[in-house]
Design brief:
The complex is a heterodimer of chains A (87) and B (152).
Chain A: E1 2-7, H1 9-15, E2 19-23, H2 30-40, E3 52-55, E4 58-60, E5 71-75
Parallel strand pairs in A: 1-5
Antiparallel strand pairs in A: 1-2, 3-4, 3-5
Chain B: E1 3-4, E2 8-11, H1 17-23, E3 31-38, E4 42-43, E5 46-55, H2 57-74, E6 79-85, E7 87-89, E8 94-102, H3 105-122, E9 125-131, E10 134-137
Parallel strand pairs in B: 2-6
Antiparallel strand pairs in B: 1-2, 3-8, 4-5, 5-7, 5-9, 6-8, 9-10
Classes of the chains: A alpha+beta (87), B alpha+beta (152).
Chain lengths: 87, 152
């Protein structure tokens, strides 16, 4: 099974790609997909604490199971930041 | 790049505030609130040169539509519209705007406040600030990996 991964903003710059495809023998969790991504793109490592995930355009937890054809997006902190009071 | 749903829009050109206001006009509504977020020339002591916005467009539009819909469910409002601009936004120009019409102003203010606060928390749109001497992705303050010095 294959999962499509999309990278945005700082993670796109660090990984050097906008998208990637991951192949698995069995359905992985989002977290297992992240582990594999971290091996392929070591520059992602420092971002584990601040990245959130979306599958098929919906936010999910890291234990969420992935299925063939899913689109996994790595979501760095959004532009409002933590306090959301930048304008 | 432009994408539209009934309550949300993502654009690559300047936001037309007049058009946005017209889109929420409703003869049953006596109050209209317009929030405009624009790009500032200073941030945390840095002189900002340029701001660049990037989105996970399909999901951002869906989230913005969901926020508008949630505001309609929570307050008595007529119409709500959310718009975000992407790409380079020159200093002083609108990067985001929310317009809400309602029979009465308290609902219009509350719904507009909710919509912009939620937008900034949950909509996957990112801002890169280019300043004199470097650039930084906003939202990542406190991590040493964010500043990419250009050596200018």
């Amino acid at each position: 099974m294959v999962v499509k991964v999309r990278f945005f903003a700082v993670l796109r710059e660090r990984a050097g790609v906008t998208s990637a495809e991951l192949a698995f023998d069995r359905p992985p969790s989002v977290n297992e997909a992240w582990e594999l991504l971290q091996q392929q793109y070591p520059a992602l490592g420092p971002f584990r604490e601040c990245v959130t995930f979306a599958v098929n355009r919906q936010y999910v937890d890291s234990w969420h199971p992935l299925h063939d054809g899913d689109e996994l997006a790595l979501i760095p902190p959004v532009s409002g930041g933590c306090d959301g009071e930048d304008c | 790049m432009d994408r539209t749903t009934p309550r949300a829009r993502i654009v690559s050109s300047p936001i037309d505030l007049g058009e946005l206001l017209a889109s929420v006009a409703d003869v049953s509504c006596g109050a209209t609130v317009l929030f405009v977020g624009s790009t500032r020339d200073q941030n945390e002591g840095r002189r900002v040169v340029e701001l660049q916005y990037e989105a996970y467009e399909e999901m951002a539009l869906k989230e913005m539509e969901r926020i508008g819909s949630a505001a309609e469910a929570q307050w008595q409002i007529g119409k709500i519209a959310l718009v975000h601009r992407l790409g380079n936004v020159p200093l002083g120009e609108a990067s985001v705007a929310v317009a809400v019409s309602a029979p009465h102003r308290s609902d219009a203010f509350a719904a507009a406040r909710y919509a912009i606060d939620q937008l900034k928390k949950t909509v996957p749109i990112w801002k890169k600030e280019v300043f004199e001497g470097g650039e930084v992705w906003i939202g990542l303050q406190g991590t040493s990996t964010t500043t990419n010095e250009k050596g200018r």
